Amino acid sequence: xxxxxxxxxxxxxxxxxxxxxxxxxxxxxxxxxxxxxxxxxxxxxxxxxxxxxxxxxxxxxxxxxxxxxxxxxxxxxxxxxxxxxxxxxxxxxxxxxxxxxxxxxxxxxxxxxxxxxxxxxxxxxxxxxxxxxxxxxxxxxxxxxxxxxxxxxxxxxxxxxxxxxxxxxxxxxxxxxxxxxxxxxxxxxxxxxxxxxxxxxxxxxxxxxxxxxxxxxxxxxxxxxxxxxxxxxxxxxxxxxxxxxxxxxxxxxxxxxxxxxxxxxxxxxxxxxxxxxxxxxxxxxxxxxxxxxxxxxxxxxxxx
Length: 304
Known about the structure:
- By secondary structure, this protein is of the alpha/beta class.
- The protein folds into two domains: 3-111 and 288-298, no CATH class; 129-285, 3-Layer(aba) Sandwich (Rossmann fold), CATH 3.40.50.2000.
- It has helices at residues 6-16, 31-38, 62-68, 71-83, 92-101, 139-142, 146-155, 174-177, 189-196, 212-215, 220-228, 238-245, 257-265, 267-284, 287-298, and strands at residues 20-23, 44-49, 86-89, 107-109, 129-133, 160-164, 180-183, 203-206, 231-234, 250-251.
- The strands form two sheets. It has a six-stranded parallel beta sheet with strand order 7-6-5-8-9-10. A four-stranded parallel beta sheet has the order 1-2-3-4.
- Helix 7 (146-155) crosses helix 13 (257-265).
- The model has no long low-confidence stretch (mean pLDDT 91).
């Protein structure tokens, strides 16, 4: 969006006669003009942020850090956090961080990724595939379990590992290369979820490096794995703590190749965990929960 088109964009927004304007994490070059337009008209402004973009880990890919730490981008996000009527955070730890950094900001947090229900009935008894979703910025997290995963694959050649996303940086040893399938991500979230429902993964891996950035992340992988019918094997870090304590996921902390093999062989346990995950997601992450949350956030007189 070109800054010179400001009057056209503001006229278009005015034509909608909005009660609330929501800014994404990207803000855009016209954020200040839109804020200036909204305030005298008593149009509520909401800044939605879904990652701790103010405290990026040093081992994030250089291109990602450069993009997110560009002065114009940081300035936009700081201005939105200070000036918007509400900072809408994807998790409580992220809300706590934003409150600490921007004490005057009004904040709210809730769920981020909704659970639509299990997309397709499937049996955990026949599949021999492990899965992982992630872009290049998630490679550092996969490395938490990579040694155990490599050993498991080398000792069990009848098992496969499938990744969705860009993991080209990982150099798979020749001994396991034929067991590894890389599937490109698809554009559009609806199409992405539809693709997930075609996968017959027994478990989905959700390891996380234990740092402040990941502590503020949401439990998206857990919700998506549960919806596709896979059991989540996750790090005991804040995004997955509730699910692990509820028996709705399995911890990958201290998970070596032998423990992974025993887990995958215990289909009764896997079915029990998957049932717990479905019940947990229906209670905690349902679309009804998200709808009530959005009604509150978007209402002109909601939290602000």
